[in-house]
Structures are given as structure tokens and as C-alpha cells.
Amino acid sequence: MTADHADRDGVVVYWRPMCPFCIRLRLRLRFTRLRYTEVNIWRDPEAAELVRLIADGNETVPTVTVAGRGMVNPSIGELLEAVRAHAPHALPKTG
């Protein structure tokens, strides 16, 4: 794995250009202040392979890992719930 998606404890969003589902999720994530990494699977063959492992052999994006747990095309609510449960350190600091 490359350094871009080696974050086993955090949040990684795997995407590809022109994917409307990726655009929607990435836009919504920008408003959360969540700490995460983005990886374009068209530029990273290892990332594309990981997405295929998570998505039953398909390159379905967005695919997200939260502390190493894979999610295929999650809603923003599902993603934030997983972050609260498995990677709360990625949430913005409050107070």
C-alpha cells in the first residue's frame, strides 16, 4: 500500500473522476471538518485493488475505509456513524 492509503486508524475515501456518487460524498464531507484522506483509484492501482477486495470484485466508488473497515457507497450518515464508533479521533475537536 502507498502512504496515501496506509491509514489503518483513520478515514480514507477512494474515488474516481466523474463519479457522481463520489462528488456528492466528497462535497458533503467538506462540510463536516472530518479528517480524512482521498485516493483516486485511477491513479493508484493498489487502491483500485483494495476497492475490488472490499466491493466483491468491482471498482465501486466511493468506497471508504474507517479504521480499516470497508464501506461501499455509504451515506454521509452511515460514514459519520462508523467514524464515531471506530475512529472518533478523526472527528473535529469541539469545545
Quick structural gist:
This protein is 34% helix and 18% strand. It is of the alpha+beta class and 95 residues long.
Describe this structure in words.
- This protein is of the alpha+beta class and 95 residues long.
- It is 34% helix and 18% strand.
- It has helices at residues 20-30, 45-54, 76-86; strands at 11-15, 37-40, 63-66, 69-72.
- The protein has a 4-stranded mixed beta sheet with strand order 2-1-3-4, sandwiched between helices.
- α1 (20-30) links the parallel β1 (11-15) and β2.
- The longest helix has 11 residues, at 20-30.
- The radius of gyration is 12 Å and the shape is globular.
- 24% of the residues are buried.
- The mean pLDDT is 91.
Give the helices and strands, then pairings:
Layout: E1 11-15, H1 20-30, E2 37-40, H2 45-54, E3 63-66, E4 69-72, H3 76-86
Number of strands: 4
Shape: globular
What's the number of helices? 3
Strand order of the largest sheet: 2-1-3-4
Multimer state: single chain
Question: Which structural class fits the helix and strand makeup?
Answer: alpha+beta
What is the element string, with H for helices and E for strands?
EHEHEEH
Taking the sheet with the most strands, its summary is: 4 strands, mixed
What do the pLDDT scores average to? 91
Beta-strand residue percentage = 15-25%
Q: Helical percent range?
A: 25-40%
- Low-pLDDT stretches are none
CA gyration radius, whole angstroms: 12 Å
> Ends: how far apart?
36 Å
